[in-house]
Amino acid sequence: MIPLGFTPLLALALAASLSTAFPRDAPKGCSLSKYQFLAPLEMKAVQKMKQHFEDIVLLSDRQCKSRLFHRKWNVAELSVPDRMVLVAAELDFTTAMLGLPAEPAFAETRQRPLAFLSQAREDLRVCMATEAPSHQPSGRLRHWLQKLQVAKKTETTGCLEASAILHIFYVLNDLRCAALREQCT
Hints:
Number of strands: 0
Number of domains: 1
Largest sheet: none
CATH class: Mainly Alpha
Protein name: IFNL3 protein
GO molecular function: cytokine activity
Helix content: 55-70%
InterPro entries: IFN-lambda_sf (IPR038326), INF_lambda (IPR029177)
Family: Belongs to the lambda interferon family.
Strand content: under 5%
Number of helices: 8
CATH superfamily: Interferon lambda
Subcellular location: Secreted
CATH topology: Growth Hormone, Chain: A
Radius of gyration: 22 Å
């Protein structure tokens, strides 16, 4: 039997040893689970931005020759590291387009989606650095990444902006698939 005065001392020693075993300031690992199911508030903000964009822009002036989001393959067919690379590229592209100068009303409407997508991009970078730091994309993904680079050089800014905003729900679905880490639909 342990003497009563010794119990608090033992508890203190145990707490001290556990705190060194599990440091509080340990770097966060990959945490994409919050993107599996997007908050209704975020979805509503994205929908409002997309609708505002469609209302103010003559889409015929922003037609693209390259159809970036029309792929012959489904994101679910990619490996998890490939999905992460794809979504990182899509988020980089989309946040760059949302960051372009715009009329004041649209600039205000896109602030929340831009902040959300920027945070998702940063979370994804952490995951990629910890889980797949030297991953080489598959052939089909490499082809799409090359297509994206060509489009950035050859298409008008208006075309690229329209493509990013009009297909933003594709990007959100791809983010969800990357967060699931298993087969997604």
